[in-house]
Amino acid sequence: MTGMRRAVLALGATLLAWAGPPVPMPPPYYEAPLWPLPAPGPLPAPGPLQPRDDTAYARPARVRDDVAAEVVDAVNRHRARADCRPVRLRTSLNRAAQRHSADMARRQRLTHTGTDGSSPAARMRDAGYHPGHTAENIAAGPRTPESAVRTWIDSPEHRAIILTCRYTHAGVGVANGGGGPWWTLDLATGR
Questions:
Q1: CA 37 to CA 33: how far, in whole Å?
Q2: pLDDT value at position 149?
Q3: How far is CA 27 from the centre of its chain?
Q4: Burial class of residue 184 in the structure, from the number of CB atoms within 10 Å of its CB (0-12 exposed, 13-18 middle, 19+ buried)
Q5: pLDDT the model gives residue 117
Q6: What does the buried/exposed string (b/e) look like for 76-102 if buried means 16 or more CB atoms within 10 Å of the residue's CB?
Q7: Which of 42, 136, 184, 191 could pair with 132 in a Cys bridge, judged by C-beta atoms 3.0 to 4.6 Å apart?
């Protein structure tokens, strides 16, 4: 019996050494955002009964070409100083950015997540663009294209996005509404 007990203990020790220590439980699921989240702009501080502006918003079909061109010109001036190639406007990215600006204006909420839970890359795909690398800058309140770009350049996180040289295409959206205008700048590299 002693020999049998030794054999069982040896087998148990071998199995324990083979199996190793118990595997730790993974931490609770957490998905970090893929882009820096901006601090809220000139939006009113949340309060117990914050009145919502129920003004009807006209749903713009697309951003005016001159506004998009002004934003991209200002972005490209900063990119040139950083030795980055200029970005070019893409109609599909304009469409994605404009839809997101209109969505933020309707909800009066500065966010990278769409009403339907979409991310910037998903909105770009839905608009017909095939993104490789993507980024999005948003703002609420600046009155001109130049001041919107200045808002982003003054923020280190947003400046880093604009000065990322791998981006080749841009889309711009702007929508009027309470707390706005609401701006979206989509930057991407296609596949």
A1: 8
A2: 97
A3: 25
A4: buried
A5: 94
A6: bebbeeeebeebebbebbbbbbbbbbb
A7: 191
Residue 24: predicted pLDDT: 57
* Intra-chain end-to-end CA distance of the chain, in Å: 70
Which one-letter amino acid corresponds to residue 122? A
Tokens of 32: 């970090």
φ, ψ of residue 140 to 5 degrees: the values are: -135, 130
pLDDT along the chain (191 residues), means of 10: 71 59 52 45 43 38 73 97 96 96 94 94 95 95 96 96 96 94 96 82
- Dihedrals φ, ψ of 87, to 5°? -95, 150
C-alpha 60/C-alpha 101 separation (Å) is: 10
Q: What is the DSSP annotation of 111-145?
A: -SS-TTS--HHHHHHHTT--EEEEEEEEEES--SH
Q: What is the pLDDT of residue 155?
A: 95
Sheet containing strand 169-175, edge to edge, reads: 88-89, 169-175, 182-190, 131-140
- Listed in sequence order, the DSSP H helices in the chain are 2-19, 65-81, 91-107, 120-126, 145-153, 156-162
What does 94-110 look like in DSSP terms, one character per residue? HHHHHHHHHHHHHHT--
Rounded to whole angstroms, the Cα distance separating 56 from 30 reads 37
